[in-house]
Automatic annotation (TrEMBL):
It is an enzyme of class 3 (hydrolase). One of its GO terms (biological process) is peptidoglycan catabolic process. One of its GO terms (molecular function) is N-acetylmuramoyl-L-alanine amidase activity. Its EC number is 3.5.1.28. It comes from Rhodanobacter glycinis. It comes from the Bacteria. InterPro entries: Amidase/PGRP_sf, Amidase_domain, NAMLAA_amidase_2. This is N-acetylmuramoyl-L-alanine amidase. It catalyses: Hydrolyzes the link between N-acetylmuramoyl residues and L-amino acid residues in certain cell-wall glycopeptides. Residues 32-169 form the N-acetylmuramoyl-L-alanine amidase domain. Pfam families: Amidase_2 (PF01510).
Length: 204
């Protein structure tokens, strides 16, 4: 007991996260192609959902090379339905996850089927799947950890509020649907914001 307390005083950083969820590091193959940034550059967390059936499919999408740099689109963190949390990109690198706000943000993806597989079908623009309690608990713990790691982090936003572009519907090109709807109406904003000390940015 005494030895433990002494160690805690000498090495506080070792104990700070002892109650936190384990985060499984599964860095993407192209992670070193993503630009680096100092921790101080991060001011915003963007909440996404994968709009895909499962984590394995989300990983496939994340690994796809889409840019000349050798990189693709992905969030930094992924939270599966059982609350298991994975890091695909360190927060000190800029990932492609939201138009226009990548440089200052960390993207967190929750596994959720969303509109899959008819994302742009005008007759299926409802996000049906609820988020699990385990996902929301893990997200809250992850946000606490990120606030401790990134000193200027103070804002949080849904992807749908930052990217409001419309696209022609896949079933009827004369109709328009939202390019992004995540995390959607089933995301429990009040529960996530409570005690987070983060301010939500909404569409203007
Ligand atoms: Zn998104």
């Amino acid at each position: 007991m005494i030895a433990g307390n002494r160690a805690r005083l000498r090495f506080p950083s070792l104990f700070r996260h002892r109650m936190s969820i384990p985060i499984h590091d599964q860095l993407l193959p192209y992670v070193t192609q993503l630009p680096e940034r100092p921790a101080e550059a991060v001011t915003l967390v963007v909440i996404h959902c994968t709009e895909l059936p499962d984590l394995a499919t989300a990983r496939e999408y994340g690994e796809k090379v889409l840019y000349d740099s050798g990189a693709g689109n992905s969030g930094h963190y992924y939270i599966d339905r059982d609350g298991a949390t994975y890091r695909y990109v360190p927060g000190t690198r800029i990932a492609h996850h939201v138009r226009g706000r990548n440089a200052e943000s960390i993207g967190i993806e929750l596994v959720n089927s969303g509109r899959y597989p008819n994302w742009f079908d005008s007759r299926q623009q409802i996000m049906r799947e609820p988020y699990t309690d385990a996902q929301i608990t893990a997200l809250r713990e992850l946000l606490t950890m990120l606030r401790e790691t990134f000193p200027n982090l103070r804002h949080i936003a849904g992807h749908e509020d930052l990217d409001t572009a419309m696209v022609p519907a896949s079933d009827d090109a004369s109709r328009q649907v939202s390019r992004k709807l995540d995390p959607g109406i089933r995301f429990p904003w009040n529960e996530v914001l409570e005690g987070s000390r983060l301010e939500r940015l909404t569409r203007r």
